[in-house]
């Protein structure tokens, strides 16, 4: 289903910043180049992408620090001046002479008649575009006050910003803000895509992410081992055509468990999403007070409020959690479901309230084919840590969650992560319009439907997360992000899942 050849190509692999620093020199040498030439290519790429994504900008404000990012900034400044732009360069320490390749770039700017100023808000007010070359990937502690004040001004200035390699103040590996972080419109990152740019707050901070391998990508990929893989919809081949002589039983029997008193909507969304994702038969086990609400208007759903054991025996896959609650009815349903799935090695998606029940009995249930779908708060409860810790180290805690429960963990949020204890993937699709009630319930239904149709849990997680997120993007493109509701995704999911 996943095109492994495409997934293994450089634009879809993620590398830690220290890996780039460690291997870029050798990769450059093997490619017939050197670090000085890479700096020239990086600065030119920044100017080119600024022109492409923020056209009609005549006055460039280029902010530089003291490392190699500053060198990239000076090269970009020189390119902009050659193109006839008005260019103002401001440095944190204008009189400081830089060393190495960055120093060469600084001298080239000065030799061309360029000045280096101290930053003022007046410079920002007069600019059409800001190039952020203040801080690179090497920082790993809170930034100094002189940088913080400039970053505050940039973020408050309402001017388009292009960041060089990484938004200044962002931890390139985790995506955590180191006290202050530039909120860029475009980030041009080099040699390898850094994981912190792809998920959580880092995805927000970098804006549109542009990758430039600077001509050394092939050599670099042979030297460095990637830490994660970027997922894109076109990497998947779909489920393929159905056999002419197939029947509803061919495509699985999915049981959705949830919908306690007053929360029928959650399990209805999950179960209907499963129907739209191709499950042959979908049955809902729900609280007696919820049966009418679940079945009304969707006669294709089978709905029951008794004999859970019989429903579990009928099912080939189970989704548990949407609207489940945590009262005695919920606990009884949870225990029966997890025991059954563990004893019969039956695939199960554990979502929402079922995650909160699972964390109370973390060692009691270890089904062999389990997919967990927590957001940061639920992942924090599963691991016994604050939600903020999860958000600050999403890659780390997605792996810990998968390892603790021996499951495939889908850590939801901006740049949803999938981790199976050995590998990590990041979904590049999705948008803030999907931050709406029931969106996660729809995802659990999609995952359950794929597993019911025989897709292995990890593959179902990769495809299902990408399918769900891309459906949200398609709806946002048609109608906008505001006002999107979870059931809007149904038709988009159906259209995508039928693409070859």
Automatic annotation (TrEMBL):
PROSITE patterns from the UniProt entry: YJEF_C_2, YJEF_C_3, YJEF_N
Chain positions recorded as AMP binding sites: 412-416, 440
Required cofactor(s): Mg(2+); K(+)
Single Gene Ontology BP annotation: metabolite repair
Domain YjeF C-terminal: 230-500
Domain YjeF N-terminal as annotated: residue spans: 20-222
Name the UniProt record assigns to this protein: Bifunctional NAD(P)H-hydrate repair enzyme
Species whose genome carries this gene: Alteromonas halophila
Gene field: nnr
């Amino acid at each position: 289903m996943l095109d492994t050849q495409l997934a293994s190509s450089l634009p879809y692999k993620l590398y830690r910043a220290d890996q780039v620093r460690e291997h870029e020199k050798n990769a450059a040498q093997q490619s017939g180049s050197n670090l000085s030439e890479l700096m020239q290519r990086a600065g030119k790429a920044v100017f080119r992408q600024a022109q492409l994504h923020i056209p009609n900008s005549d006055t460039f404000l280029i902010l530089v620090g003291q490392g190699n990012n500053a060198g990239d900034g000076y090269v970009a400044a020189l390119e902009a001046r050659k193109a006839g732009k008005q260019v103002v360069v401001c440095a944190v320490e204008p009189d400081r002479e830089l060393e190495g390749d960055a120093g060469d770039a600084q001298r080239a700017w000065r030799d061309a008649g360029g000045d280096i100023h101290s930053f003022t808000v007046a410079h920002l007010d007069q600019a059409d575009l800001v190039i952020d070359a203040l801080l690179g990937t090497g920082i790993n502690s809170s930034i100094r006050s002189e940088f913080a004040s400039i970053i505050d001004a940039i973020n408050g200035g309402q001017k388009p910003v292009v960041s060089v390699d990484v938004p200044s103040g962002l931890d390139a590996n985790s995506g955590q803000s180191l006290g202050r972080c530039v909120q860029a419109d475009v980030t041009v990152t080099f040699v390898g895509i850094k994981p912190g740019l792809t998920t959580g707050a880092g995805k927000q901070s970098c804006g549109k992410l542009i990758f430039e391998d600077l001509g050394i990508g092939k050599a670099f990929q042979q030297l460095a081992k990637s830490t994660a893989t970027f997922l894109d919809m076109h990497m998947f081949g779909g489920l393929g055509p159905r056999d002419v002589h197939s029947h509803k039983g061919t495509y699985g029997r999915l049981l959705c468990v949830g919908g306690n008193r007053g929360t029928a909507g959650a399990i209805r969304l999950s179960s209907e999403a499963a129907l739209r994702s191709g499950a042959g038969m979908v049955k809902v086990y729900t609280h007696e007070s919820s049966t009418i609400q679940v079945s009304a208007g969707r006669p294709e759903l089978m709905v029951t409020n008794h004999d859970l054991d019989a429903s579990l025996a009928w099912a080939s896959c189970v989704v548990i959690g949407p609207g489940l609650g945590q009262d005695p009815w919920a606990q009884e349903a949870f225990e029966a479901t997890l025991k059954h799935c563990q004893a019969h090695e039956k695939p199960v998606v554990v979502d929402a309230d079922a995650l909160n029940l699972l964390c109370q009995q973390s060692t009691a249930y270890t089904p062999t084919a389990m997919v967990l779908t927590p957001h940061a708060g639920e992942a924090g409860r599963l691991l016994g840590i604050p939600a903020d810790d999860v958000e600050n180290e999403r890659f780390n805690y997605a792996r810990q969650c998968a390892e603790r429960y021996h499951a495939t963990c889908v850590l939801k949020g901006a740049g949803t992560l999938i981790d199976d204890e050995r590998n990590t993937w990041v979904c590049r699709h999705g948008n803030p319009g999907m931050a709406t009630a029931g969106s996660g319930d729809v995802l659990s239904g999609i995952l359950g439907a794929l597993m019911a149709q025989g897709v292995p849990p990890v593959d179902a997680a990769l495809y299902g997360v990408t399918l769900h997120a891309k459906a949200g993007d398609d709806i946002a493109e048609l109608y906008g992000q505001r006002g999107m509701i979870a059931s809007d995704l149904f038709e988009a999911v159906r259209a995508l899942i039928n693409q070859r």
